[in-house]
Amino acid sequence: MKPDPTAFQVVLVLPDNDDERSILVGREEHIWDAAFKAGIVLPALCHQGRCLTCAGRLDGPGNVDQSDSVDYYPQDRESGFVLLCTGKPRSALRIRTHQQNEMRQHRIQNRRAAPYS
Ligand code: FES
Known about the structure:
This protein has helices at about 30-35, 75-80, 100-110; strands spanning about 5-15, 20-25, 55-60, 65, 80-85, 90, 95. By secondary structure, it is α+β, with helices and mostly antiparallel strands. It has a single domain (about 5-110), classed as Beta-grasp domain (Ubiquitin-like (UB roll)), CATH 3.10.20. The strands form two sheets. A five-stranded mixed sheet has the order 2-1-7-3-5. Strands 4-6 form a two-stranded antiparallel ribbon. The chain is globular. The N and C termini lie far apart (about 45 Å). FE2/S2 (inorganic) cluster binds next to loops.
């Protein structure tokens, strides 16, 4: 079977013993939604790319389209933080989930919006 060029493999590294789950995420699909469809319920509140509750962090190289997010800054990208509720894959990815505290700290250090801090 040929690989689907419109979807990417995304490995989610979950906090429980670094449990890994691999899912397929469509180019126009939000990573959070694809995880939910696969039975993985990740943290989320706003689903708009604003509150940081769904934050993850890239574990290795990769590219995520965050154009659907209300607030996403170049510093977030430089540090590998991603918002899963509004992030769409543009490459295969490996993402450490449950990074909301880390991303809020990062935003505070960069003097950017950090809701619920
Ligand atoms: S759920 Fe609020 S930023 Fe993703």
